[in-house]
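Case study 2.
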Amino acid sequence: MEMNTLNLDYSSVNLMLQLQIQDLEEIIASSKGKYREGETPDADLALVASKSELEFFKSSISDRWMCKSITQAVISDGELVCRQQGEENLETRDREFALNLDTNRETPSDGTADSEPRDEGLLGKLEALHVHFPDDDLDRSI
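Prediction:
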């Protein structure tokens, strides 16, 4: 199912789909016609199939918006998180150094800035994993 969202936000798209699903549920509930046992009219099957497709589309859109939000958070906050981690590592080493001075133990002299090596290409790898759908209104509106 393809839907042109016209740059609508997630809440608007979600509301439209929910209203369509509710309409179909009302139609399905009111279409208790007479037919042979074990046979379902094509119209009823079509209504159930349409409802199922709308629910799948709603779930897919929700998943995509959540993934895009996570991707944007990783991209925008990634450098800040790396800097904060470096500061925490420095504070940990400073504390260990002070404890070692206090107990007159020998201090490590590795001189490294980080206790764990940092993968500089991690954000690039995560960004490469982000699925982008070209000319997609959902990608432009988030």
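The chain has one domain: 10-141.
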